[in-house]
Amino acid sequence: MVDVGTLVAGVSSPVGLHRVLEPLGVLPQAAWRLDASPALFADEVRVRVERLNLDAASFRQLWDRHGGDGEAVRAEVAQIISTRGKMHNPVTGSGGMLVGTVEEVGPDSRLGLAPGDRIATLVSLTLTPLAITDGLAAWDGRGEQVPCTGHAILFGRSIAAHLPADLPAELALAVMDVCGAPALTHRVVARYVAQGRPPVVAVIGGAGKSGSLALAAARRAGAARTIGVVPLPSEREQLTRAELADAVALADARDPVALAGAVAAAGGPADITIVCVDVPGCEHGAILATADLGTVIFFSMATSFATAALGAEGLAADVQLLIGNGYAAGHADFALDVLRSSPGARGLFEARLASHAGAVHPPR
């Protein structure tokens, strides 16, 4: 059993129980408010924050809530951080991750970090104590990446990765934000291949960050056929040019019948369906698009897992439903390697970052 520590005053817990202010006794991700004070416990690390990466579902919810008013989005994110001591969207329940430079390392830390290291955190902002000192003044609220000044705290059992020297920090951050998706995709596809049945893989949201890496990882693992599903003709053109999928289908993932029909017409049904979109209401379509005894992996934070489970039951669909875990051993290095070896995926990432530097295009 993992030793999670206690709530004794002055004693730290490797999973951060000592930073929970409200309500006491829960883990930091479940807490309403965390203590983000800069003084370190012995096993903690303080990071000087350079940039946040809001997860796609959270940014879309904020963008839609404020009708595309970037200043209002900026103000709400600043308010969430100051109120909760972390970036934890109370509507979507999601956060994101950050990059920064290590400022101080406690004497008992086992994370392998040293002052001056530039790192990306590989744990969610929903459980990371965070304080911002510039009011997000350098961010216009119109893109997922948030330049800022402040500090964050990593616990004894947190996860972080050194930023690679060969990639721009913004690009590395965007990849590491979704690095769980290609790792789990590769693992699941490889299991099918090892059983002598290379799968048909459909990725809903194939032109997005997690979707493009999932397509590349599925192909690397030996998928028999890859199908990318996108909602817009412009995204179909982008994904076709990227050559990440054997077929690209156009469908609104919120329309179950249309989605299942589009996947079938592109070579489905899928043995493995991967949901990478950031809008709610895609559960039933993903299940319908999947063959009996197939697998559906939900990487979207907009997913209702009750809807997915009850929907599969109501559709009499004998499929395995997996929650996409943001962590897998070696996932950051694997995702970066997928990006480096896939010009199509890298091109989609770079185009996305360029679009956010100018006119915003809300994420999918």
Question: How would you describe what is shown here?
Answer:
The chain is of the alpha/beta class. The chain folds into two domains: 17-166, no CATH class; 180-357, 3-Layer(aba) Sandwich (Rossmann fold). It is built from eleven helices and 14 strands. Helix 4 (180-194) packs parallel to helix 5.
**Reported CATH architecture of the largest domain:** 3-Layer(aba) Sandwich
Number of domains: 2
Strand order of the largest sheet: 6-7-3-4-5-8
Residue share in helix: 25-40%
Structural class: alpha/beta
Radius of gyration: 20 Å
Number of strands: 14
Distance between the termini: 39 Å
| CATH class wording of the largest domain | Alpha Beta
- Mean pLDDT comes to 92
List segments where confidence is low: pLDDT < 50 over at least 5 consecutive residues: 1-9, 358-364
Give a quick account of the main beta sheet: strands, pairing sense, barrel closure.
Answer: 6 strands, antiparallel
Features:
364 residues; Rossmann fold; 2 domains; 6-stranded antiparallel β-sheet; 34% helix; disordered N terminus
Structure summary:
This protein is an alpha/beta fold and 364 residues long.
